[in-house]
From TrEMBL, chains A, B:
Species lineage: Eukaryota, Metazoa, Ecdysozoa, Arthropoda, Hexapoda
Organism for this UniProt entry: Drosophila melanogaster (Fruit fly)
Oxidoreductase is among the record's keywords: yes
Keyword annotations of the record: Fatty acid biosynthesis, Fatty acid metabolism, Lipid biosynthesis, Lipid metabolism, Mitochondrion, NADP, Oxidoreductase, Transit peptide
Region Disordered, residue ranges: 304-325
Protein name: Enoyl-[acyl-carrier-protein] reductase, mitochondrial
Single GO term (MF): enoyl-[acyl-carrier-protein] reductase (NADPH) activity
One BP annotation, GO: fatty acid biosynthetic process
Chief place where the protein resides: mitochondrion
Record carries keyword Transit peptide: yes
Length: 325, 325
């Protein structure tokens, strides 16, 4: 077993002479249902060279996109054999002799996708990693690069929001939805969350309101609600949709003139239906957001780090809590 | 009968002493089907005062929006009694004593909507009118402020097009569609037009190709066409939709990554159906365009005149032909 306490006292040259690491990974060599194609495989890892960093994975989440990638239903196609997973928080074990920014014992998260994080250990490149404070919880750090950053970018990139403005979203208790509520609260923006009705609806509403939701309504309640007509809240100029179908249509119906509905998921597997009137006469725009594309297009941009560092507050405790069950 | 030859020799003061004009207008005092609510009404017009201009209407078209306004199905609600019509070309008969930019005999078009152009004569304000060359055909001038300007703005305002780029549109033989083909040819842009199949399809294709269409395909033909896959034409980055339903979905399917589908009409009365995949993974945006809003928001903008003056070439013959039957 690898222990940080021991490893942090030896340097890279000592490491390579003294021991090696066997990684246990969830690998697949063809597309299919994860339970059928994933296999637990052991690989002896090479020592980290040059700009490489050997890490031990401390926690790695399962995102829907990870499942879809394995199924072959995602636009990103891995080279086989592939290791599942795109996110994690890891501990640096040792580094190649050209690595300057990392040292053993630090916590890091991946900045690139497709690194295969469902493994016990991995060798990554220095520029694929970002240091995070060890004060940030493992759950928060391990889930920081996909869902909170999706929420962050969707709130920043489509409409210029001011304090007092309103954002509306369906799937409000998704990992992205929870981050939206928290960021809105931090920035003084009203957030209205739409959720499906369920037996424990009161507890769910309370949980989301504790995170920062201004209002939480079921799909049925939003249809008859007068929170916007009454002037209680400003009509939303920005809406997020991860459901599709009637839910997306209903959410778009509440948008103010010139508003934007951003789709980042389609849980109902139904398309977004857009009446001609709102498009033309209310100038409602229907857009999409894909974190993977944004990250590729902005790989070296300083903006790329502000969300992760800002949200997690590398100087202290997490600002945005990890997803609640 | 009012004759320009005679009237242009008398000044405004003489006019007001010598004669008055009775305008015959198509008026309505309630919403309904045009044939039921429109009445031919005679009104004695006041002499033009101050910044007013008395005009004789030479030609005025019927646009679908004019019908919808009378039916009460349009977001613009007139004050009753109202005169139908929003476009025309007119001749200046005489002007108020503060008018500086107009004189009798000139041809003018309205810059404002809702002026009620289905009349023989009218008194408008100086700032509601724009002079057009008398070399421009009456059909071209009378139809210049709605459809060609819609085409012009949709080509300018959503995607930065370069020569060699491709635009795709359904309803390709609409008045807007015809203007799109002509402007694309003038600017070196490929335009692909989709039309419904019909008995005289060969003649329609020829007519649209004469106007400037690069390719004209029926709804069935576009489904199996390989003009984009084969590389014959670059994939479109901009699409126009005035039909909705399956036609809009089909058009959006051919858009390149980051492309925009602009809806300006909904002839099928079916909504635009937007699959989640293209929104998220291809970054296809679904927008709308409404000329009335654009004109209001840009009433005094120099841009407002460039399309009318540029398209019609006030110095000579019309660059964009009026709608073909």
């Amino acid at each position: 077993m690898l222990r940080r306490g021991f490893l942090s006292r030896i340097n890279a040259a000592q490491w390579s002479r003294q021991m090696s690491v066997v990684a246990k990974s969830l690998k697949y060599t063809q597309h299919g249902e994860p339970q059928e194609v994933l296999q637990l495989v052991e690989d002896k890892l090479p020592d980290p060279k040059d700009n490489q960093v050997l890490v031990k994975i401390l926690a790695a989440p399962i995102n829907p996109a990870d499942i879809n990638t394995i199924q072959g239903k995602y636009p990103v196609k891995p080279k086989f054999p592939a290791v599942g997973g795109n996110e994690c928080v890891a501990e640096v074990i040792c580094v190649g002799d050209k690595v300057k920014g990392f040292e053993a014992g630090q916590h890091v998260i991946p900045l690139a996708s497709g690194l295969g994080t469902w493994t016990t250990h991995a060798v990554y490149k220095e520029d694929q990693l970002l240091i995070v404070s060890k004060k940030v919880g493992l759950a928060e750090a391990a889930t920081s690069t996909v869902n909170p950053t999706t929420a962050y970018r969707m709130l920043k990139d489509f409409v210029q929001l001011c304090p007092g403005d309103t954002v509306i979203q369906n799937g409000a208790n998704s990992a992205v939805g929870q981050a939206v509520h928290q960021l809105c609260r931090a920035w003084g923006i009203n957030s209205v969350g739409i959720v499906r009705d369920r037996p424990e609806i009161a507890e769910l509403k309370q949980m989301l309101q504790c995170l920062g939701a201004t209002e939480v309504l079921t799909e049925a309640e939003i249809r008859t609600s007068d929170i916007f007509k009454s002037g209680k809240l400003k009509k939303p100029r920005l809406a997020f949709n991860c459901v599709g179908g009637k839910s997306a249509t209903e959410v778009s119906r509440h948008l103010d003139n010139g508003g934007v509905l951003v789709t980042y998921g389609g849980m109902s597997r139904e398309p977004v239906t857009v009446a001609t009137g709102p498009l033309i006469f209310k100038d409602i725009a229907f857009r999409g957001f894909w974190m993977t594309r944004w990250s590729k297009e902005n790989y070296s941009s300083p903006e790329r780090f502000e969300n992760v560092q800002g949200d997690l507050r590398a100087d202290g405790a997490g600002k945005v809590r990890g997803p609640q069950p």
